[in-house]
Amino acid sequence: MDRKVIAVFGGTFDPPHIGHLVAASDACEALALERVLFVPAARPPHKPGEVDTPPELRLRMVELAAAGDDRFDASDIEIGRDGPSFTIDTVRELKGDDFETVYVIVGADGLAEMTTWKEYRALLDEARVVAVSRPGFDFRSAEFPDAGAVRYLEVTPIGVSSTMIRKRVAAGRSIRYLVPEVIEDFIYEEGLYVESD
Length: 197
Ligand code: ATP
Ligand code: MG
Description:
Layout: E1 5-11, H1 18-31, E2 36-40, H2 55-67, E3 72-74, H3 87-96, E4 101-107, H4 108-113, H5 120-126, E5 128-132, E6 151-153, H6 162-170, H7 181-190
Parallel strand pairs: 1-2, 1-4, 2-3, 4-5, 5-6
Helix pairs in contact: 3-5
Bound molecules: adenosine-5'-triphosphate (ATP) and magnesium ion.
The site of adenosine-5'-triphosphate has 18 residues, from helix 1, strand 4, helix 4 and helix 6.
């Protein structure tokens, strides 16, 4: 890709679901992006002890989900790094790799937490932060003081979360249509989420 523009979509992705994919796809369209990098976090700084699906399996799922779309890629940039994952480090690493413009896509719930992120003012400066809407969260929340530095994007509302998927698997309910078929197959093959969190 020679445009040297890339978008980063970080998360736990335990598992990736259609909410992630539709949000990324709508962001691609709205921002004329050619490439979105799905970046599973190693140890999510805001979820200590909450995730026990190994990073390698979450990466594998993100690879499977991204493989179905030419615009999407999976990256091990954060799980390959020691310690917890910070978006600012990822942005700087991509800029060091010659990407001129780095977009950071963050869902409405993530945006509300962003002021607690490492060097968040630098992040607003060095990346173009794009907040995507998510059902159940007010993404124009007044608690966020730097609203002017963020681009707000209404995306197709999909009320699906990874927590919902994990709970449905644990309860023996169907997850068909809520995750790509390859992800559904992978979850059952690996026996993930049989015990609920
Ligand atoms: P969990 O329930 O485990 O927290 P999740 O569904 O929130 O999982 P994450 O991996 O935590 O998924 O989210 C990664 C990013 O995707 C976050 O920025 C989040 O806001 C965004 N996101 C997740 N689900 C949706 C959705 N349905 N619509 C829009 N954005 C979403
Ligand atoms: Mg979440």
